[in-house]
Design goal:
heterodimer, A: 252 residues, mainly alpha, B: alpha/beta, Rossmann fold, Alpha-Beta Plaits, membrane (chain A)
Amino acid sequence: MTLLAVERIKLFSTRSPWWCMALAVTLTVGMAALIAANTNDEFPLSVGVSQSFSNFGMIVIMVMAALAVTTEYRFGTIRATFLAVPGRVQALIAKTVVVAVLAGVIGEVVAFGSWGISTLIKPNADMAINSSVEWRNVAGTGLVFALSAVLAVAVGTLVRQTAGAVAILLVYALLVESLIGLIPKIGVNIQEWMPFMHANNFLTADSAALPEGAGPPRLDFPFGPWGSLAYFAAISVGLLVVALAVAKKRDA
Amino acid sequence: MIEAAGLTKHYGPTVAVDDLSFTVEAGRVTGFLGPNGAGKSTTMRMILGLDTPNKGQALIDGKRYSELKRPLGTVGALLDAKWVHPNRSARSHLRWLAKSNHISDKRVDEVLEMVGLTAVAKRNAGGFSLGMAQRLGIAGALLGDPKVLLFDEPVNGLDPEGIVWIRQFMHRLAADGRTVLVSSHLLSEMAQTAHELIVIGKGKLIAQTSTEQFIKDATEDNVRVRSPHAVKLRELLAGSATVTSDEVDGALVVHGLDPASIGDLAAANGIVLHELSPQRGSLEAAFMQLTKESVEYHAAES
């Protein structure tokens, strides 16, 4: 518990996490408002549509999570941390937990904020969250944000440099996973095993967010939504375990 | 007490620290002296568990650093004053350090007062001058009221006032019975700060001795003599001492005879002296002599 308090003090005593959180919320909720305002009879507003830009927030939160580690390496405070807490693994787990919980909370704020603003803009649309698919789509956002923060902390710990870690995360999450689908024949099969695709499957499986034919073709995932979440969690936590082992062994 | 036994660290083919053994006793300031790149920082990092030695170990009061329950209560270290987040206030920086070792916020304010940073406690550490940053680092080292303190080049870049402050501070810490290890590449600084010296070069131990003894062994005492009867005096001295002439002003430089004996000899022979001055050998010259073989990066001869 002490270590969690330590990491909480560290995180909230600098400005950049506050900026990242504010950016994640305004960006996503703002996009949701723009979408809601432009829906019509052909493209009607629904719970699913209001959630279609939560990825924006997730990317920003991943940057925040990576920064939480890389700035410690950049400024040497990681060494001060390891001097105060020689159990490096515990110290880094505490950091991961604090960042992941915060990311989860932001995820919920983003999801319900997007849903709320859409409801306000189009009060007549069917925005009731009344099926398990819709609940998963909205409330599940926090889980996805938390797990992607774990993944980002792991990458930050392995790479130790802000520029490198952020570049890897952005290029991978924004480009690699979607572009790999362009490889003929096998591209789609690879995509069906990529972590962020599964995160998305968890949020959107069985929901009719987009009308038939709009957006990228649906993938044939090996798991159902909760299986996809477990797969995403396994990859994030697995990468974290590797990062912790490396951090423990290497000279600080 | 700090005990290093056979500490060895390689970075690829480079040997940074080579089978280094020494002990640092409580109640005195021990200087850790060596040219840049001699392995002082690496050794301190191994003592503190930041770097893992390839061979050997370092014990603090009989324990490895990683075995300490609340390390800040046993060991305080200032390895680099820049190890702070520039956008975090001095007080917040100390607060998270304190929290990690169950130290109260009251103690944070106490150490801030001790190093004279109370007035700027809420300011971001990034805006601190080097002197202020060093003070903040020292405040962090003192948080747990530790028995063992390590400082890596604490006076680097400080103004004279700051240097005197740190020097007195370390003497006070040692007088309290604490173990104080402080590194420097300047012998002249160490001569005024340390009671005991551990001298290393290229990662190897050169000497561990009292500062007084080290300086005595390392420097030669000469006596400068000027006289209108220099030639005659030189003949008289030749039997009992080595005499050379200063190339600049022709003064005699006598080695192997103390000033009193030279004066007596001159008076007994009715020789007038214009100058009779003992010359302490330069500390820096002596240090360079000792570590000449072990300096990693030589400047090209011009």
